[in-house]
Input
Amino acid sequence: MADPEPPPVLNVLEALKQASHDLQAHPSSSLKDFNSSAIKALLELQTESNTILSKDPNLSTLSQHLSSLKTLVETLQRSRGLSFRNFLTRRVSTYSITRVAGSIETEIQAWIDRESIENLIKKIKDPCDNEDELVKILTQFEERVSLGFDRELQDIVLKSKVFSSFETIICNSNSSKRLKEQSAYGIAALMRFNKDVFVGQVLMGPTVQALITMASIPSINVLCGLIKSIKSPLVDEIESNGEIPKIINLLDVKDLQMRVVAMDCLLEIGYFGRKEAIEAMLKEGLVKKLVELQRSELGGDLIEMEKFDKNDEKWERNREGKQKRFLEMHPFASCVARFAVQLEVGEGLRQREKRAFKQEILVRVREASVSDAEAATIVAEVLWGSSP
Output
């Protein structure tokens, strides 16, 4: 009978990683504990994996750690008895075993990251080979990066030029919509992973223009997140490239969720935008569009809700929750005042610029209103919602 095939290296490494993690989570100086579960699994896998690990030079350090672990456990097992010397030996061996287990887990994760990213880059170069598999790999990458900063992972990502590969997908007209969107999520994850490293690539590359051109709910959501992270410099880039009108035009699409996401994005631009960006928004007729949205069935005004709720003695306690529920049903309620407040409390404008823009918004509200009553309500909201 032929010998059974050895398990794939990834299966062995995952088992080693889990055993190492268990050992760190439940350390003990008890010899009985070290003869059980985690230690036993590690030692069995150390014997089983010698041949497998020797085939990959990247796993040589892991092999050394496993050999060290075996030696430490043997030392611990020899330290029987109640003498002070044996007690110290057990304490030192326990600490060393836990430390080596941590090193084993780190080495295994680094190997998995290298293999995963190498596979990711390979699949990106030939996305038509199996799109479902590539989407799955992209999702796995996003989940891995979202676990938090890891210097070794960052080195692998930079060396492999993962960011540029994502840009290639979202800028490629032949890429499918879901591939572009998943790549956009990957870029957003890299920004959360380490903003300082990847902000330059976002600002200098075609990412932002590609996201706006995609004009999908995920792409504008990602753009909104990038604006919150990079702030005024990214808004400057959007304005200088003439992209603000494209975002404003999304308020006219039929898809309600798209219009809501676009408005959220415009509110963020209002918060972080400098004078040139705000001028571009007003020149493009944003206030008129917001007045129309507020006039629609999905609009309304929060100031009237406030007056009604003040008859309720629990109004102050329930205010935030009621506003949230009202906005869920009327996403464009008080959108003019919400935009004006973003400008007033935002980071992009000087105080005198804020005062001047508020006055301009009031003028444009009166021009866009269909009645004096509508104008009076919106003007009151803008004044009421603004800080003194």
Summary: The chain has 22 helices and no strands.
